[in-house]
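On clarity, I found the account of how folds are encoded harder to follow than it need be. Since the whole study asks how a given chain folds, the encoding of that fold should be made plain. For the editor and my fellow referees, an illustration may be useful. An entry of this sort, consisting of the sequence and the corresponding C-alpha cells, reads as follows:

:::
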Amino acid sequence: MHSQYRFNIAVINPGIGVSFVSVDPTEKTILTIPFPTNLTINSRSKGEYSISSLYKLGSYKGSGGMFARRKIQGFMRVPIPGFIVTSKSLKIGLLGVIFGHTETSLSRFDAMLLLYRVTRYRRREISGNELVRAGVIEGNSYHSERLQEYVGTRLFDWEIGATGLTVAIINASGENGLGSDLADFLSNLGLDVVMVRSINVDESLNKSSWQVSDDKSAKELSYIFQNLFGFDQPKVENIPVEYRASVLIKVGKDVKDLF
C-alpha cells in the first residue's frame, strides 16, 4: 500500500452486496459507493452477472474476494488493490483484519493505517438515487460512459497525476476495444494517455508487456502494472520518440481477464 496515493478497496458482504470505498490522503476524505444488489454488470471474460453474485462465483475456485475485487476494478475502470469480506461495517471489518479473523488482501499494517484514516477523515456516501440522477444507473443496468465521467472527476489521484507520466497503448490482443478499456482505467488513475493504437499482427500477443524509460518510473508504477494487472517486470530503456510517452504498454489477451 502506497500511503501517499489514493487507496481503493472493495467491501464485500457475501450474498448481499458490494461497496466501493476510496480513501484520499491528499484531501483527507473517504468516498463510499454502495452498489444496488441487483445491478447487472458485464465482463469481457465472464459475460453478464449480478454484482451481488461475484463473491459466490469466485468462491467456486477458492478466490471469492479476489475475484470480486478484480471484476469491480474492471467494471469501474479504477484500481482496487484491496478487498475485505465482512458482514459488519468497514471499521469493524478492519479490526477483524488486525486480529486475524477476516478474509482480506490487506496486511495488518494496511488495516491499521486505513482504520486510522476511517476514524479521522471526512466521509461521504453516494446514494443510489444520486447514481440514478447522474444517469449512471437505470433499472438493473448501468451506462459505462456515464460511469466513466462520474468516477473520473471524483477519483482522480492527484499524487499520480503530479508525476506527469505519459502513456502510449498498443493493442496487440486481437480484441477490439481492449486498448481503450485500459486507457480509461489509466486515465481515471491519474496518468496521461496520449495514444491508443491497434496493430495488425499475424498472431496476437497472449501476454502483455510494458516498457519505461527510467528506473524511477518503473518503481513508481510497479504496484499498478505488476500488483494489480499481473504484468511481468518492465523493460527499462528509451521509448521511441514516435510514441511521445514515458510508458509504453503492449496489450495482450491476458488483459481481457481484467475486464
About this structure: The first helix runs from residue 54 to 59. The chain has a mean pLDDT of 87. Residues 158-258 form a domain with the Alpha-Beta Plaits fold (CATH 3.30.70.2390). Residues 225 and 231 are 6 Å apart (CA to CA).
